[in-house]
């Protein structure tokens, strides 16, 4: 069997991206997209060239969180052109392809994976420092963060760290890790995307956010990280102002009302 032509195309595309940061969550509604969006804003504000790729094709919320609702994608002979928030922050999302933002995309299996593959190989990011990937939530076997971490350990993938979001209320956590290709042949979209990204850029950073309701009386995510020997990156408190900024497509770092969340997020981002 010869080399997979799609993988070769993705490798070529990813060659112009220095760091890939993958954000994943076990469940929906834990702040994965919020984290991806604010991380992208932060990196762009630090003058990096940033791409944000939303492959959460079942509920793309990135266009809204970046203030890009209603925008569409254009093609050039170099590929699909991202939609730019600033000259150094480009965004690609399935949301740009849906006529109605409320349309749910109920694609499964090969069609879903085909679209993710196309995003990875056909978007013309140009030379960028960071590609932040907001990945699809919920996989069959990775819905629990401990399981995710164990899966990483099993396949020899270093976990870069864990973020506890909405700390103090229902605690959710994010783990940051490298992921190696699995040999199972499973077509789960998340795992599949991880494998493709890892294959095409083995030296690069992946971030995985996954979630679990934590009992803070038992030490929360920090204790779990200690027990599982993975880095704990910090807590982001529950902050209605962060929710508002996200709803309105704004960066929390330039919003003086986000006093509870912005400094915490900034500290976490510094550690990446
Ligand atoms: P996911 O991508 O995991 O499905 P979202 O990023 O869409 O989750 O977040 C779900 C909701 O929670 C959004 O309305 C978002 O604004 C809100 N949210 C996320 N993190 C926080 C936080 N730390 N404080 C307050 N609201 C938050």
TrEMBL record:
Keyword vocabulary terms for this entry: ATP-binding, Iron, Iron-sulfur, Metal-binding, Nucleotide-binding
GO cellular component: cytosol
Membrane spanning residue stretches: none
GO molecular function annotations of the record: ATP binding; ATP-dependent FeS chaperone activity; iron-sulfur cluster binding; metal ion binding
Example GO BP: iron-sulfur cluster assembly
Name recorded for this polypeptide: Cytosolic Fe-S cluster assembly factor NBP35
Organism: Eleusine coracana subsp. coracana
High-level lineage: Eukaryota, Viridiplantae, Streptophyta, Embryophyta, Tracheophyta
Gene: gb15239
Positions spanned in the full protein: 46 to 317 of 321
